[in-house]
Write a structure and sequence with these properties.
Dihydrodipicolinate Reductase, domain 2, globular, eight-stranded mixed beta sheet, 34% helix, 2 domains, 9 helices, Rossmann fold
């Protein structure tokens, strides 16, 4: 197999604007097919991929023998079902986050992955960005000393109750939508898992959480952070050690929100900044996926990693609900 032939389940805006172009641009793969029941949404994908095959339902795309891998940008509540179906159809799967609505749902996906020998992964793109890889390297180097506190903030404003992010039946809510970023990032950089959620203060509207302020205890540090879908756009993460502070700017939507940067403050007036202006994390994610399938390279975000983040989300909801 010289390259992966990709199909996309659904003509979601995110697939049209971000992941479709990334699949098209990524080395080792090609955008080959799209499944959508909305003919008016096809044109932007056809502009990317000449000869694009269009299927009018998801099952037909999964039955297509000329598709090797499937990208799933469907609403959150549909992720587990269609990941299972794609694996059963013999396709490798890259599914949007959050992969599931509860950690135990991922066990069936792990079993299906292992039985099939296929690659299945959550589309947690930030781990492919050099900003985050460098942040983990800096922490592991000991430059900021033993870690004591992690702070995280991620917000945007969306009060459209017709939007899927605000629909409980679609798996909406601030925690599933963007809590997955800050929880996963803390786990990725530190390599630690939360021991306990100490506090979880949530606001609710229309059956979904719109703001969540969370504190947690990890083995070697404390965590505090918030997410909100009812606040002005903002994003930042801070790792505070005994010898210095590492701050990540534009950590989740690099370029769209701003330039990805790491700032190190090491005391005695020592301040260093590292910039990452050009990296395209969606394309890097696709290329890593292609290389994992075609060349057997390790993939940096496994289903087990996704389950760890979902477990922290589950713990937070449990704490909030008493």
């Amino acid at each position: 197999m010289a390259y992966l032939r990709w199909g996309i389940l659904g003509a979601a805006r995110f697939a049209r604007e971000k992941m479709g172009p990334a699949i098209h641009a990524g080395r080792g793969g090609a955008l080959t097919a799209l499944a959508t029941s909305s003919p008016e949404k096809v044109a932007p994908f056809e502009a990317l991929a000449l000869g694009l095959r269009v299927h009018h339902d998801y099952e037909a795309l999964l039955a297509d023998p000329e598709i090797d891998a499937v990208y799933i940008p469907l609403p959150n509540a549909m992720h587990v079902e269609w990941t299972q179906k794609a694996l059963a159809a013999g396709k490798h799967v890259l599914c949007e986050k959050p992969l599931a609505m509860a950690a135990e749902e991922i066990d069936a996906l792990i079993a299906a992955r292992d039985a099939s020998g296929l690659l299945a992964a959550e589309a947690y793109m930030i781990v492919h960005h050099p900003q985050w890889q460098r942040a983990r390297e800096i922490l592991q180097s000991g430059e900021i000393g033993p870690l004591r506190e992690v702070g995280a903030q991620f917000s945007f404003f969306n009060d459209d109750l017709a939007n899927i992010r605000n629909k409980p039946e679609e798996g909406g809510g601030a925690l599933p939508d963007i809590g997955v970023y800050i929880f996963g990032a803390a786990r990725f950089v530190t390599g630690e898992e939360p021991e306990a959620i100490l506090s979880a203060d949530l606001d609710w509207q229309n059956g979904v959480d719109t703001r969540a302020h969370v504190t947690a205890r990890f083995p070697s540090f404390h965590y505090q952070g918030y997410v909100s879908t009812r606040m002005a756009p903002f994003q930042r993460m801070t790792f505070h050690g005994e010898a210095g502070v590492m701050t990540l700017e534009a950590p989740f939507n690099a370029q769209a929100y701003g330039e990805a940067r790491i700032t190190l403050e090491l005391g005695q007036g020592i301040r260093r900044e590292e910039r990452f202006p050009a990296a395209q994390h969606y394309t890097l994610q696709v290329e890593a996926f292609n290389a994992a399938v075609l060349e057997g390279r390790p993939y940096p975000w496994t289903l087990e990693d996704a389950k760890g983040t979902q477990r922290m989300l589950d713990m937070t909801y449990a704490k909030a609900r008493g």
